[in-house]
């Protein structure tokens, strides 16, 4: 496939994935914090088209789960009470795109709740939590990458353009940051800040912390571009007309860094989403009851959950298609720029 | 009448790449003096590394000389504050050797020629476009080409574009730093022609830097020969060609490929 | 020689920088270990104050840093509030466990990556190579957290491997052979997690470097000389492709301490990882600094080690360095 088509393919795939998460309210049947204490740790329910009498139904349905006789966590399908699935149903309120009130959901039921991916300790629907959790984790990754790239670009531009002692100082600092083990730095940064904060504050804190860890590599790359562009004759020529430094940076040099920054973005976003997941998993990130992919996995730290409730692992898989998409995008971007170096895709850490 | 440009004892030192001692420096220009009367062409001939490009950059105020002075229309350029110098810059423009590097490949021809107006903050957007088109016409770039990106143009067209850009601010002096060296012979002849036309119609003064003696002889009234950062010989073209006085001049002349039947004939473009 | 000295000095500066940074950090951020204590009504204010004075937390920052530097110069790394014992021995025990894990995993990863990468490069573009490329691509897409948790679930549901810890109960009573088996079974899962996350990238690097070299004229000349295939691959191609791989190896050495943090926490391996996490959560300052410093020492030594190896193995670098 020719490079532009490859690029488009990955871009489209990523956009679709992000749209699904952005439209979490629509795709998810329930509110992510809505509890149902009567049904903790329900396994995933199956959707049927054929009932036990082998009759075909055109409308999909499911059987609610009832506790098996004599056990307290074994469930079986109650084949006597089929509950039909409705599509484009009106359900719980949610803000579409954050501000438009809406009640439309892709699917749902009247009455008995359907748990396509099971439920957690409080009876909350895992599917809904995964979708809404994705909003938090992805946003953290995107914003974090934004912070890092802005910081890195600024520093790289200053170091590369002005040179001299400023360049030395900035690059030595960058070397220091690159030398630090990023996970340690992340934890230390996060943990030295107040631990018990509101979900929003925690989220912002996570974004800032993640953003400040990884600026060194983009800064070095941007600096490299600036150094090579600075000496080109068209920059000299513009100076010959009396162009100011700001003009040169803005109109000639910055556009040249776009390709590097884009590639870095494609590499950093998944890393930062993972960073948020790791932080939240260990209790240093977004707290309950707000869902994020990380804290959805936190219950796996209990042995009982590991043994009996395998569906609690599913949120971990949610990130895999995104990783695939971003990785593919990054490699397509690099091939297009002709700078495909294997170094750029080193292990899942900014260092 | 005072010359348009006068350079006196220009010295430019660069710090050595691998300094053996703190005082280690490389003298690109080692006391250069020359003068160019208005509306004439001075050709500066020399080998690579003789300091020609450094001189060009200093004259165009893109490098600061270590010592010496540059007088433009009687004003000491080095003496000026940068803001004042900025006002003077439009008067002296530089055309570089490699148009692939001197033109931003992503920009269109129109954008490139309009850039000087934009930077100097003159004229409305409409006027900038109009003036740019006028200059493009002057150098023989069609309207169709105007909206093409620089990367899509041929070598000759690129260099015409570079010249158009240099002309945009209506300078008095144009320094051409090996501007034709990267082009094919036939294209060289065309551009040469163009330059001579422009000189007579616009009253320009040229500092024509080259390593090709035959071209120098063709376009210039006077030739100055440069070697290791110094001017070793100057004089009217004819005289230098016929009776070179300095060794460097002689070796340069000997190295110039001469097609029998004398000078390259101009092809009318 | 001067080159290496220069690099070592550089490394030392880096260490200073990091320790200073960490110290500064702790000072700028609110909260310390004794805040929790202060909230506890059973402990009197005077006791807290006395403890603080004992640990010198009320002295200004430069003083504390100077004291700490002094202590480090004497081989002590400070005192842990939470464990109420010196930091040094605490770190050492845990570091040993971490190193056991990471050294095993690193060796295994490299021992697998080299032949796989070389083999893949020699069959570049053909079916076996493409299968391997697909496998590495798939593994790369799975982040370490997901992989570690997945392996854990596998272990739990199949019961093939223990799900945490270093040794089973009653370890001391086992025969040496059984001890080894027990250790191996405990190591299996964390090592697998580490190897699976690092192997794909290593294989790719090896494959890329060797593939680049296989095109070189000198190698074709060697083929013309009739040198047997295996010797060609390992003796000639791999050696020529070694430079980037040596740097990578140095990086592997460098992350021996810090690279397994997450795996250790997830799989309950009693190494530096869980210790550090605890210390961070409890704001046990000197443990954190000690841990960060230890991992930094390894990182910096790893790079230095790679520099030395490169210097020793590549004559071009020796010549360039001595020319300066």
Percent strand of chain A equals: 5-15%
Give, in order, the helices and strands of chain B. Answer: EEEHEEHEHHHHHEHEHEEHH
Instruction: Please state the overall shape of chain A, judged from the principal axes of the Cα atoms.
Output: elongated
User: What is the structural class of chain B?
Assistant: alpha/beta
How would you describe the oligomerization state of the chains in this entry?
heterotrimer
Low-confidence segments of chain B, ≥5 residues, pLDDT <50?
Answer: none
Biggest beta sheet attributes of chain B: 6 strands, mixed
- Overall strand count of chain A: 7
Query: What count of helical segments of chain A does DSSP give?
Result: 12
Distance between the termini of chain B: 35 Å
CATH class category label of the domain at 5-102 and 175-255 in chain B: Alpha Beta
Number of strands of chain B: 10
Sequence stretches where pLDDT stays below 50 over 5 or more residues of chain A: 343-351
Give the proportion of residues in helices of chain A.
55-70%
Work out the radius of gyration of chain B.
Answer: 19 Å
